[in-house]
Design brief:
Blueprint: H1 2-13, E1 37-45, E2 51-60, E3 65-69, E4 80-84, E5 89-91, E6 101-102, E7 110-112, E8 115-124, E9 132-140, E10 142-143, E11 152-160
Antiparallel strand pairs: 1-2, 2-8, 3-7, 3-10, 4-9, 5-8, 6-7, 9-11
Length: about 160
C-alpha cells in the first residue's frame, strides 16, 4: 500500500507538467506502473489537400483504465481530448472516439482500456500559415482495482505541414 501512496504523490507533484513532443511518432511508448498511460499523435493527409486527420493514440497499462463517461453521482474524472487549433484550421465534423466498456457493477460508468485512438478530421484553409502548430492533449484520471491517481493532462505539439 505504501508503494501506491508514493506513486500517487509522485504523480501528483508532476500533474501540472505537460509532456510535449514535436511531430511525435504515431505509436505511444509502452506504459509502465510508474506511468500507466502513454500518448502520441500524428496528422495524416487525405486525398483532399484541405482535409487532414489528427490521430491521438493512447496506450493504457493492463489492469488500469481511464474514464470515458462518469455519471454525476460518481467521484471520478471523465477523460477529455483537448485541441488548440490555430487560425485557418477548424474541426470538420465530430470527434471520433473509441468504444468504451461498461465498468462491472457500476451502472453508468464507462472506461477505456488497452490501446485506444481518437480521430478528428480537420479543415485546412488554403491560405493557412505553413508549419503551423497544433496542440492536442488528453486530460484524464487513471485507476486500477486498488488506487486512483490524480488527474493529469498530457499534451502533444504537432506541426501542420503542406
Amino acid at each position: 500500500m505504501r508503494f501506491y501512496r508514493i506513486i500517487a504523490i509522485l504523480l501528483f507533484v508532476g500533474a501540472n507538467v505537460s509532456a510535449y513532443a514535436q511531430d511525435i511518432k504515431s505509436k505511444p511508448d509502452t506504459p509502465t506502473s510508474l506511468d500507466p498511460v502513454q500518448v502520441s499523435a500524428s496528422i495524416v493527409s487525405t486525398e483532399d489537400p484541405t482535409v487532414k486527420t489528427l490521430i491521438f493514440n493512447v496506450a493504457i497499462l493492463e489492469g488500469y483504465h481511464i474514464y470515458a463517461y462518469v455519471s454525476p453521482q460518481d467521484p471520478y474524472i471523465q477523460s477529455k481530448l483537448k485541441l488548440e487549433l490555430p487560425e485557418g484550421v477548424t474541426n470538420l465534423g465530430e470527434l471520433q472516439t473509441p468504444t468504451p466498456t461498461a465498468y462491472p457493477g457500476k451502472g453508468e460508468l464507462y472506461v477505456y482500456t488497452g490501446n485506444i485512438q481518437f480521430k478528428q478530421p480537420l479543415k485546412i484553409a488554403e491560405d493557412y500559415n505553413n508549419l503551423t502548430a497544433i496542440k492536442c492533449g488528453l486530460f484524464y484520471q487513471t485507476c486500477n482495482a486498488n488506487i486512483c491517481l490524480p488527474p493529469i493532462q498530457k499534451d502533444v505539439l504537432l506541426t501542420l505541414k503542406n
